[in-house]
């Protein structure tokens, strides 16, 4: 009986450790792909060896650390086009705040994959060209403070 109790305790603590150390690997890879494929002037503490949910600047995960739900990186000196197939892979993302950077090029259409967005903040960047027409995919979007960015789109189409 004593041995069984010891094994049960080991199993319980092992399970608890796995639950607390879990992290969203796919989201981590998407953000690493983003940061490795865009020019930026600020050094972020994003390292594949550290916990995305506990250590990465501007990243917030849900309560059980299974998904990234917010990326807040305003004024980080990002330059150029948002790399395709990066941020659009964050399937549980609710808030994307990347205002006041130097993003350019077309609006990244893979952001339309972010079906859970409630807040989108991309103002004060240099996007060019037409906006995608179908914003109805963002059914939960309550706050889109992107007016200056969207005005640029509308004037340039």
Q: Mean pLDDT, as a whole number?
A: 83
Order of helices and strands: HHHEEEEEEEEH
Instruction: Give the C-level CATH assignment.
Output: Alpha Beta
How helix-rich are the residues, as a percent range? 25-40%
Q: From the alpha carbons, calculate the radius of gyration and give it in angstroms.
A: 19 Å
Query: Could you tell me how far the N terminus lies from the C terminus, measured between alpha carbons in angstroms?
Result: 75 Å
Count of alpha and pi helical runs: 4
Description of the structure:
This protein has 157 residues and is an alpha/beta fold. The protein has one domain: Alpha-Beta Horseshoe (Leucine-rich repeat, LRR (right-handed beta-alpha superhelix)), CATH 3.80.10. The chain is 29% helix and 15% strand. It is built from four helices and eight strands, in the order H-H-H-E-E-E-E-E-E-E-E-H. A five-stranded mixed sheet has the order 1-2-4-6-8. A three-stranded parallel sheet has the order 3-5-7. Strand 1 and strand 2 form a beta hairpin. The longest helix has 20 residues. The chain is globular and about 70 Å long. 24% of the residues are buried. The C terminus is likely disordered. Keywords: Kinase, Leucine-rich repeat, Receptor, Repeat, Signal, Transferase. GO terms for molecular function: kinase activity. It comes from Abeliophyllum distichum.
Note the topology.
Blueprint: H1 2-21, H2 25-36, H3 52-55, E1 59-61, E2 68-72, E3 79-80, E4 95-97, E5 102-105, E6 119-121, E7 126-127, E8 143-144, H4 147-156
Parallel strand pairs: 2-4, 3-5, 4-6, 5-7, 6-8
Antiparallel strand pairs: 1-2
């Amino acid at each position: 009986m004593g041995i069984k109790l010891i094994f049960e305790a080991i199993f319980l603590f092992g399970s608890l450790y796995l639950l607390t150390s879990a992290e969203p690997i796919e989201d981590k890879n998407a953000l690493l792909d983003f940061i490795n494929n865009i020019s930026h002037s600020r050094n972020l503490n994003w390292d594949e060896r550290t916990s995305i949910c506990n250590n990465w600047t501007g990243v917030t995960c849900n309560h059980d650390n299974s998904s990234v739900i917010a990326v807040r990186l305003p004024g980080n000196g990002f330059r150029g086009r948002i790399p395709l197939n990066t941020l659009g892979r964050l399937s549980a993302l609710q808030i994307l705040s990347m205002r006041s950077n130097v993003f350019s090029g077309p609006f990244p259409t893979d952001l339309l994959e972010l079906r859970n967005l409630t807040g989108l903040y991309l103002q004060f960047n240099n996007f060019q060209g037409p906006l995608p027409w179908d914003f109805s995919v963002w059914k939960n979007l309550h706050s889109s403070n992107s007016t200056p960015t969207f005005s640029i789109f509308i004037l340039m189409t």
